[in-house]
Amino acid sequence: MKKLFFAMALLAFIGKGYSQEKEIDSTAIFILDKMSDVIGDLESVSFNMESVVDRFDAEKNMETKHGNSSISMVGPDKLLAISSGDRGNYGFWYNGTYLTYYSFDENNYVTLDAPDTILTMIDSMHVSYGFKFPAADFFYPSFTDDLMDSFNSIKYLGKKMIAGEQCYHIQATSPDTDLQLWITSTGYMLPKKLIIIYKNEEDKRYEATFNTWKLNPNIPSSIFEFTPPPHSRLISIMAKS
User: Fold this and answer.
1) Is the residue at 240 inside a domain?
2) Is omega for the bond preceding 115 within 30 degrees of 0, making it cis?
3) Between the CA of residue 72 and those of 51, 80, 118, what are the distances in Å?
4) In sequence order, what are the beta bridge partners of 112?
């Protein structure tokens, strides 16, 4: 994809399911590819993510939920993600063989056989059990291609300041969804902020801000092994049909 894209200054694609041509900015794609290259070259990483998510309550009124996640990964087969906030307090421990989900609120956990890499585990557990892992999309090698497939327009909007850091501003739009992504422009090119607006769901919003990136840290393997807390209960869950 990269060689093809850089050979042409601007490409027009026919969107999947849409009649209009796509407007793809080569500068935006270059920035997205560089970000993916940096992330793809990492052997280990840790970072924090603050999230703001709109949800409909039982009466179909919009309600905003806040949360914070701490993520550590060692490629290709270790992940720890601890999340807290309005939607609950829980964690995922993955050691390359098993994934454990633990609820701090209910003091119970489930341990499941898992595929042997982080990305295949994430795909499998999302399809089978509906688990959602913080910031997972950025770690897929196909991230740029997925954006190009899903959005009619991808543009570079220049440099902007986000929380004191100068960032590249990327905008992607489709009939149903608007996305904005800010990527740090100094030093390593890493995600700083992401906003997604779902236009066909009353402009429901998802927002994530990333900070405290640590690249290739020395992370002990022991943190990816789950140890049941006192009085916690082992439970079972059914895979989605």
Assistant:
1) no
2) no
3) 17, 5, 12
4) 99
With respect to residue 147, please indicate whether it lies within any of the assigned structural domains.
yes
| pLDDT bucket at 241, cuts 50 / 70 / 90 | low
Structure confidence at residue 20 (pLDDT): 57
Domain count, the chain: 1
Task: State if pTM tops 0.90.
Answer: no
Q: Which residues contact 173 (CB under 8 A, 6 or more apart)?
A: 151, 152, 153, 179
Q: Is residue 163 domain-resident?
A: yes
What mean pLDDT do residues 178-204 have?
A: 94
Predicted local confidence at residue 220, as pLDDT: 97
Residue 123 phi, psi (nearest 5): -60, -50
Helices assigned H by DSSP within the chain? 2-6, 26-41, 118-129, 143-150
Domain that holds residue 96: 2-234
Using pLDDT thresholds of 50, 70 and 90, give the confidence band for residue 151: very high
Any idea what the CATH number is for the domain that residue 228 is in? 2.50.20.10
Is residue 129 one of the residues assigned to a domain? Answer: yes
